[in-house]
Structures are given as C-alpha cells and as structure tokens.
Amino acid sequence: MESSLEIRLSEANERPVSLMGMSPEALESFMVVMSSLKEIAVSLVNSDELIFSIQEGSALCSIQAPPHAMESVYEEVDAAIRGESRKKEIVDPLRKIQAQLQNDNYNYGFWYKKPGKSVEIHARLKGARKLQLKRVKQSPFSYQLLILRGFLNQIGGKNPNYHFDFEDGEKITVECSIEQAKSIKEYLYREVNSLVLCKKWERENKRDEFFHKVLLNEPVNEWFEGFLERYYTEEDLVKKLSVIHNFMDEAFANSDLGHEILRNLLLAFNDERFHLSELKTPLVISKPFMDHPLIKEPRQALLETYKSKRS
C-alpha cells in the first residue's frame, strides 16, 4: 500500500471550493500549492516512484509513493517546519505552501498518510514562523562506513581498542566497546574484515578515527563491499535509502545469507551519528523478521538508538 502527502482546499472566501467551480484567485492559490508540493516530492524521490492525482471533493492534490520514499519526504518536511533543514529545494516551495495556509481567505488541510495512520501537518506549518534554511558551519569532518581488511595483532587497553598492522608500515587503531572487544578477541592473530565507522577529517594533519561495528565473514563481506560502493556514490539521502532497500531485496532474493546480512546491516547503522532516516530504514526492513534469532537483539538495540536520537 502506498503512502501519500495530501493538500485539500475546502473553502475560499468563506465559500465551498469544488474543482468544477473555482474563482480565479482560488485557482491560482491551489496551483501554487500543487506546484510547490510537486517540487518537494520530485527533489527527493525518483519520478517513476511518484503518482500525482487531483481529486474532487473540495480541491484535493495527492502525491503517492512507496512508504519508505514518502516517509523520507515527510521527515524532510518536518525538519523544515522545525527549522532544521539545510535543503533550499525543500524550504523554498514549503514556504510558498505556508504562505497560502496563512492566508485567511483560504481554508487548507495538509496531511501525511501512511498505512494505518494519518498525520496532520497544516496546523504546525500554518503556526510556524517563516521558514528559513538552517545555517550551520561547514563540518571539519564527515562519517562513512568502510571495510578494513588486515591482520588483527593486538586488542585491549584501558579504553578498549584493537590494532591493524599493514605491510607498508601503516598502523590503524579501531575503538570498540568492552563487549565488542570480548567478541573480537577470538579473531586475534588472524586476517579479518572489519566494518567500521570512519570519522574522516578534512585537515591533512588530522588522523582519521575508526569505530568498530562488526566483523564480516568473507561471503557477507563481498555483499557489503558492493553495497557501500553504491551507497556512497549517492549524495542524496532518499536515493541512499533506496540503495539500502535494493541491497536487502537482492540479498534475500539471490542468496541464503539474507538474515545474516540484515543482522550486520542493523549493527552497522546502530549509531546516533547517522541521520534519523538512516537509522529508521533498517528498522523498517527488519520488522517482518523482528523475532528471528539473528535479528531480534541487534534490531532492539538499533530501535533504542533511534528512540534516543529522536527524543
């Protein structure tokens, strides 16, 4: 079942509105809202996933898309209303919609609808201050998942970590928790594939930092290498989320490692340094398997991280 964003113009100048009979002013207002809503959707979702409709019963504009795509659109709209969006392509058209909602001559309703739930948007958007882009300083670092393959030759320390030594003399230290260190210990003095979250610094004299996520066996590692290459080729968040969905669809369709790959995906994204949508997407994918023995614990841990970041 598809999810949707819907805007309905029910009254103009205290008169009921119908697609069969609208004043020039009401039509112009409705067209501004409809065009702006389309602009938001197409900036985030592939056009072939979107379905647009204009319906009678007042004047209703509806945009439908798969739940994961429309959820991301709603979260971007929500962020813009809260003043947390850095995306001009979202804030500018949403500001035009806000202006029409705040015009006392018109009575608009605005909803995000997904299976089993309807979320009202119009009251918050109408009551919000004029929408502005969030101004932030350029971060001196970024985070990225990557795979380190090396010889694990040391683990421990007061602040737990483990070490790789490479043939060219390079040494890398990976931070981990005490519980992670206990599970990693059995791989000491072996060649391993370590999926880590890398804090990449822009300054050349600043060393990158590495945080352990999970060790990958060789078959699973091959899947993740392809996934990470595709994931970080995309810059747009919604397209990245589609890569996650496609990755897991392919894994379950083309291998018998689906549950194991999904378990490692849950472990990989269990970190508050990811965007809320990046945390939520593996949760949505894993919901049908939430009681599976490989999935239950890592999914619950990621869910707690998601709730903590959202609060």
Q: How would you describe what is shown here?
A:
The chain has helices at residues 24-44, 67-81, 88-101, 122-127, 178-184, 218-231, 237-254, 258-268, 276-286, 296-310; strands at residues 3-12, 15-16, 51-56, 59-65, 106-114, 117-120, 141-156, 161-165, 171-175, 190-201, 209-216. α1 runs antiparallel to α3. A hairpin with a 2-residue loop joins β3 (51-56) and β4 (59-65). By secondary structure, it is α+β, with helices and mostly antiparallel strands. It has 10 helices and 11 strands. 42% of the residues lie in helices and 27% in strands.
Any key phrases for this structure?
single chain, elongated, six-stranded antiparallel β-sheet, 42% helix, five-stranded mixed barrel, 10 helices, 11 strands, 311 residues, alpha+beta
Short description, anyone?
Helix content is 42%, strand content 27%. By secondary structure, it is of the alpha+beta class.
Topology:
Elements: E1 3-12, E2 15-16, H1 24-44, E3 51-56, E4 59-65, H2 67-81, H3 88-101, E5 106-114, E6 117-120, H4 122-127, E7 141-156, E8 161-165, E9 171-175, H5 178-184, E10 190-201, E11 209-216, H6 218-231, H7 237-254, H8 258-268, H9 276-286, H10 296-310
Parallel strand pairs: 9-11
Antiparallel strand pairs: 1-2, 1-4, 1-5, 3-4, 5-6, 7-8, 7-10, 8-9, 10-11
Helix pairs in contact: 1-3, 2-7, 6-7, 7-8, 7-9, 8-10, 9-10
The SSE string, one letter per element, is EEHEEHHEEHEEEHEEHHHHH
Helix/strand/pairing category: alpha+beta
Give a count of the beta strands, DSSP E runs of length 2 or more.
11
Task: Detail the poorly predicted runs.
Answer: none
Q: What share of the residues does DSSP label as strand, in percent? A: 25-35%
- Give the integer mean of the pLDDT values: 92
Shape type: elongated
Q: End-to-end span in angstroms?
A: 29 Å
Main β-sheet, in a few words? 6 strands, antiparallel
Helix content: 40-55%
As a whole number of angstroms, the C-alpha radius of gyration is: 24 Å
Number of helices: 10
